[in-house]
Amino acid sequence: MTLMIDGLRKRFGEVQALDGVSFEVPSGEVFGFLGANGAGKTTTMRIVLGLLRADEGTVTLDGRPAHDLPRRTWGYLPEERGLYLRMPVIDQLVYFATLYGVPRAKARADALGWLARFRIAEYADRRAETLSKGNQQKVQFIATILHDPDVLLMDEPFSGLDPVNVALLKSAFLELRDRGKALLFSTHQLEQAEELCDSVAIVDRGRIVTSGPTRDVKRSTGHQVVRVAVAGDGDGSWLRGLPHVTVTRPGRDYTEVLVDTGANPQIVLQAALARGGDVLRFEVGDPSLEEVFVERVGAVDTTERTLASVEEVRA
Amino acid sequence: MSTLTNVTTIARREYGVRVRTRSFVFGTALLVLGVVAIALLPVIIRALDQLDQTRIAVSADSPEVSATASATLDQLLNPPPPNGSADRQAGYEITVVGGADAARRAVLDGDAGAGLAITRSDSGELDFVLYSNDSSTGRTAILVGQAANAVAIADRLERAGVAPADQATLFAPARFQVAWPDPAKEGPTQDTLTEAGQDLLGFGMTILIFMIIVMYGNWIAMSVVEEKSSRVMEVVLNAATPFQLLAGKVLGVGGVAFTQYGAVVVAGLASLALLDPIGSVILGQDAAALSLPSGLTPGLLVAFGVYGVLGFLMYASLYAAAGSLVSRIEDVSAAVMPMTFLSLGGYFVGIYAATGLLDIGSGWITVLAMIPFFSPFMMLGRIAVGGAVPWEIALSVVLLVLGIGVAVWVAARIYAAGVLLYGQRPGVRTVWRLLREGM
């Protein structure tokens, strides 16, 4: 089962919100949808869910148009949390699930199970407004998955959660993934995405800048990151002479350099060994998603909006 | 999930959440109490009347005069009930006291509400003095004045040689009747009291329908905005279609409206039906004088139900659509303005026609009363006074049902697009675009 998003375009008056968005989310995968505010993430999700109509482009699940599928196929966690504040938690969970066709008794039992798992069982009969923001968010997540949807779309699911709850939510993500669900979520927190996502797409101003398996996206920058430290070596200035190598962070503990793809990172090790000192550290890796993001989005566009979002990403 | 199941689920939530609020429970209780009080008003007023018996002390020079005077006063001040029942309502008690000063003193001491002193002057004429702390143009004074006239005339006739027995024929009322100009019609023309009662019925029902539509329409618009501003809308929209949401909301809140008004109507009818038994308990045998409002036929009640429900459905869908266009509670009243104007227009024309300020039989009112936006407010008035022929009623109902279809279609389209519209309040052009293109 694969969710296929192909060539979505959407214009709101003057603003071209989506300008040809295409990507794929296979089932059994966690997919990260990365982008600044206003990049088009929410619009894309709303179109996938059929809440908005695209000007152009198609959304299909295994070749079937998304709007032909029953509503229970989809689970949606909107960015702005929405609960009936004066309704008891368990009542609204059952209500949402019954709208998707889940029998009341099953909805109730499942909801209580999830509440216990998220350590908020004692709030079941409280009104939603009495819960903290973080707990409301967990309730909202349960509402998203209670009808056992095949595809989950979640807008910023981790925002506002403390580390304990982030861990709870992550384990739920992975469990759902292992049960063969397709999970797509948007986030600003790129470390989160890096840790969880099998694939990612970076979107900027309605365009997909890059997408694919996380490792491929990281390598799409055209270089690998090498960290090297040699005993008795002060500033690593010897690295500057090497071909295909750019020093990015000269540091006391180690020096970080970028090696162009195509060149073998081992040339750095060979050069270090050739200098005769003890090599204390040699590490080859891919750039982080944060670096990719800054490079691709930050470089493409230097307006205030994008810079602000990069700040936000770093914060 | 099937549309019907979802609409039911949504309607049930809307209903359940609302009828459990304290404001609903207390509001309904107050309304029921109010309507029972109004229905029992005739009994209450007459019970109070009975408690409030005015005593009139009469004195005269001769026992004959005082006897005639007290009999005349009794006749005029305590008229027999309209339906000719033997029981008389005794609002005034007439007592004969000795001497003009005794009558004055009785009032001064508070033993009597008024004192009438009759003396024969030297010229032979009777002089009447009414001692009273109340206004000289008050009801008592005027009635006593009339009685005084009658007593004086009877006295003059007697002095002129007409025996009291002959006076009865002399004062017998003229044979007078009001007849239909159309000889085909039989029976008496409608008496004003019945007519006023029927006007009042149409009037009252129109007010009820107007209140239901405006109050609960606004309630629906508010609850749409609330769902939008709490963003719960997006969650629900993923599970249910905008149409299901709209329909569920209208039916759920409609159910609340009709629970409340059902309680009021049942309480009102029950107290009207129980008026006789209740009346006889409170008033004793006087109760027979009370009767149900004459124009309250089952047909009128059915019409009230039909126009109330249909009118509500049409207006409520539009109220929901209007609510979907704004994101803040404070913008609701501006968004529902068109509905407010339409319903107010229909309501005022309907009320003016029902109360006779406008001629309810005129052509333009007949036409206006057919239009779906206005018929819920105008047809009841026309039906109540018997001014609407069956085909007019049928046509207006058919048009109203069609109107609901159009309103729901328009509302569903606006709603589908509006509920995800945040920020600036959209203008007429945006609404038109939404209608044409959808989301």
Written account of the structure:
- The complex is a heterodimer of chains A (315) and B (439).
- Helices cover 35% and strands 30% of the residues of chain A.
- Chain A has helices at 41-49, 89-99, 104-117, 133-145, 163-178, 190-196, 214-219, 266-275, 289-300, 304-314, and strands at 2-12, 15-26, 29-35, 56-61, 64-65, 74-77, 151-155, 182-187, 199-204, 207-213, 223-230, 245-250, 255-260, 279-285.
- Chain A contains ten helices and 14 strands.
- The radius of gyration of chain A is 23 Å and the shape is elongated.
- The longest helix of chain A is centred in the middle third of the chain and has 16 residues, at 163-178.
- Chain A is of the alpha/beta class and 315 residues long.
- By secondary structure, chain B is mainly alpha-helical.
- Chain B folds into two domains: 3-43 and 192-437, no CATH class; 53-170, D-Maltodextrin-Binding Protein, domain 2 (3-Layer(aba) Sandwich).
- Chain B contains 18 helices and four strands.
- Chain B has helices spanning 3-19, 22-39, 41-51, 63-77, 100-108, 139-159, 164-170, 192-229, 232-239, 242-273, 275-283, 298-324, 332-335, 337-354, 363-368, 375-384, 390-418, 428-437, and strands at residues 54-60, 92-96, 114-120, 126-132.
- In chain B, strands 2-1-3-4 form a four-stranded mixed β-sheet, sandwiched between helices.
- The mean pLDDT of chain B is 80.
- Classes of the chains: A alpha/beta (315), B mainly alpha (439).
- Chains A and B meet through strand 6, helix 2 and helix 4 of A and helix 1 and helix 9 of B.
